[in-house]
Write a structure and sequence with these properties.
The protein has about 110 residues and is an all-alpha fold. The chain has one domain. Helix content is about 65%, strand content about 0%. Helix 1 runs antiparallel to helix 2, helix 1 crosses helix 3 and helix 2 packs across helix 3. The relative contact order is 0.22.
Length: about 110
């Protein structure tokens, strides 16, 4: 007998997972006292990158703009929701580990 384990994640699951992690990455990439616009720009870049990679992987190498836009909206919406709903209330808007890199990064 041969057992095969294949795990497939739906694109929307990957988008939600990435939207949960991107606020932390944004906090680590930018300085602690960086301008809010800089942090927002980094967040948009990160979520756009995730959406593009996610859509291309799911479409097996095809570039489908409609899927990328939908995944970007989902990821960015979840990014904002988890930042204001989880990360900000728990840590005062500071991503875990961001204090140790307060003066390193953009902004």
């Amino acid at each position: 007998m041969e057992f095969s384990t294949k795990i497939e994640l739906a694109a929307w699951v990957v988008a939600l997972l990435a939207g949960t992690v991107t606020p932390v990455l944004t906090g680590l990439i930018t300085k602690l006292n960086a301008h809010a616009g800089t942090k927002a720009f980094i967040a948009v870049l990160l979520t756009a990158g995730v959406a593009i990679i996610d859509a291309i992987v799911v479409a097996k190498g095809e570039f489908i703009l409609q899927d990328i836009v939908i995944l970007f909206v989902m990821t960015f919406t979840w990014h904002v929701a988890t930042y204001f709903g989880v990360w900000k209330p728990v840590g005062g808007g500071v991503a875990p580990g961001a204090r140790s890199t307060a003066e390193i990064g953009l902004g």
